[in-house]
Amino acid sequence: MTRATIGNPLSWSAARLADIGHGLEAAISGIGSHETALPKVNNIGMSDIRVALRKGAEDFAALRSDVIMLVLLYPVIGFALAAETLGGGQVHLLFPLIAGFPLVGPVTAVGLYEMSRRRELGETTDWRAALTALTGRVLGPVLTLGVLLVVIFLLWLIMAHAIWTATLGPVSYHSLSVFLHDTFMTDAGWTMILLGGGVGFVFAVVVLCISLVSFPMLIDRPVGVPVALATSLSVARRNPLTTAIWGVIVAVSLMLGAIPFFTGLIVVLPILGHATWHLYRRAVAYPA
């Protein structure tokens, strides 16, 4: 009896460690591409964007309570970062934070892609099922791309701070009204706006191109990060106008959703996330 009591915890621990090891192995192996051939990239246009947005809204309407559970943390983090920025005398980083926070949006939407995939197949679509699917081969590639987007977001904030230092800085602003006055009523402020806008545009284009279909693709197929990135770039290169229009729709929607203390993102992000899945399905095709 004593032996069983001692042995069971040891056996259980060994089994759990083995499970963790297998999970890590699957996550790491999923980062690399097991397929070198790229899938077929289709031509897409405004009609495809309209269909994707319509289906995205339908998914949100059907799964409202579950998708809100998945994205609720995103606006909370955004609000906390904005509050810290205002309270810490870093008012000049408020707009770069609001403008750049959507750069990591594709990471937070991976659960939404999985829910749209499951709804498409008629499978269970609650948020628990979506999170359960983000393990094994999916976890490693998604985390790898997620880290890449976080690094890009941090680089954007560093660049924004450097532009502010070279124009309106280095004196810290503790008043938002004073900062806004100096931004729009001085030559240095307009220089900061133009430089920041140009640099921010470059960052946004890079993130748009690498995340256009890469995250949904990793959820859908075991293709690995290199093939997913190459396919996403190929879709953007083949459909530059449609990609640009989609980027504007995403940027404007996320900015509007972020204005009322990030609360609008609770609705905007799910619709865009689901719509991204459907746009991917129209942009990428696989051999039978």
UniProtKB/TrEMBL annotation:
The keyword Membrane applies. Pfam families: DUF2189. The chain crosses the membrane at residues 67-87, 93-113, 134-156, 192-219, 244-272. InterPro entries: DUF2189. It comes from the Bacteria. Keywords: Membrane, Transmembrane, Transmembrane helix. This is DUF2189 domain-containing protein. It comes from Rhodobacter flavimaris.
